């Protein structure tokens, strides 16, 4: 008898991911950011959708926690839009991974996303999502001055 | 995330519970192997890559079981990493054996200028540099264009496939080299004037003609059949039903192998089986009343 094996994330690991996200609340609370159980569940579902939509498979603890850790002290992360912004960053993350053909390591990509999010994107995950990986890397490397935004061809 | 669907690992005798446990164990192993593959740089990979890594794991684990003649239950009773290492060891041995076979195939290749055979053997040489036994063991990183008498089963993967392909090439080479090169060239010229450039099997007309002569009790080494010999062969084959026809070709091929000094090992079995596969062609030619495009003359 042949048994088929799939790449579906085992339910046990999905739960472990949600539990880990709950633990992040302790760390983000000092920035006034917490996720409700409903938001955590929604984010976990959003992650599965994002992975499916981008044709990727994730192992280990997942990238959501890394995003929380990397972005929680961003001045643009507000309690009202915390969960939604995280979800948008998650989508952007997988999109950049695919578009760069996995050439940018996770940690480096998150670092670049944070630099541009706080700089040129001025907290807009939507703006971030509109960049190519090359633009992201270039903008992350360059110094962004909000006073020169017009000269730099920004949307803002 | 459904790229893994369709992948399989033999799990005979495992209960549903054990199979569910195995799924979890495999996921854990795949997770560790993916981290090694990406050097820890990425917690996610494209589904296609994950599917390839999983297929390689399943293939290597099967090798590990086979090496110890172990039942599938081992998949849930011992650490998969250990079984994987044993599978990799078994594959290393097979790869070394396959490389020796490749050298034999190159050294025994007939002195016939056939582009597909030459390019295929050259490309297989690159396999031993490209083969990723650790992560993509099921893949065959070389171009195999040359058509065998009997194709290797598509179920074989990685070095297993290549080893079987080369065993068959060596058997075919041995038969071709048993005959005069000049006669073989003339026969190929008759059966396929562009035998140098087309994707054809060089051994097929040689085996069939020699088998035809063997059935008539003629001089196998002559390789060509006269009109009169073809007529006698038609009389010999016409009354046979398909099973008898296949058997006749098998026996004839064994006589050819004996005459060629191939003994009774793998080569003789393979060539006899290949000869049997030619019966439908012979039967169709018999029905059409013309064997000249199956059993060739050299003139």
Q: What features would you describe in this structure?
A:
- The complex is a heterodimer of chains A (156) and B (299).
- Chain A is mainly α and 156 residues long.
- Chain A has one domain (11-143).
- Chain A has helices at 11-28, 37-54, 64-71, 82-99, 106-118, 125-129, 133-141, and strands at 2-5, 56-58.
- In chain A, helix 2 (37-54) runs parallel beside helix 4 and helix 5 crosses helix 7.
- The longest helix of chain A has 18 residues, at 11-28.
- Chain A starts with a strand and ends in a 15-residue tail after the last helix.
- The relative contact order of chain A is 0.11.
- Among the domains of chain B are: 16-85, no CATH class; 187-299, no CATH class.
- Chain B has twelve helices and two strands; from the N terminus they run βαβααααααααααα.
- Chain B has helices at residues 16-37, 47-67, 74-77, 80-107, 115-130, 158-177, 181-191, 203-216, 227-237, 242-259, 266-277, 279-288, and strands spanning 7-10, 44-46.
- In chain B, helix 4 (80-107) packs parallel to helix 6 (158-177).
- Chain B is elongated and about 70 Å long.
- The model of chain B is unreliable at 1-6 (pLDDT under 50).
- Strand 1 (2-5) of chain A pairs antiparallel with strand 1 (7-10) of chain B, so a sheet runs across the interface.
Question: Any key phrases for this structure?
Answer:
heterodimer, A: 156 residues, mainly alpha, 7 helices, 2 strands, B: 299 residues, disordered N terminus
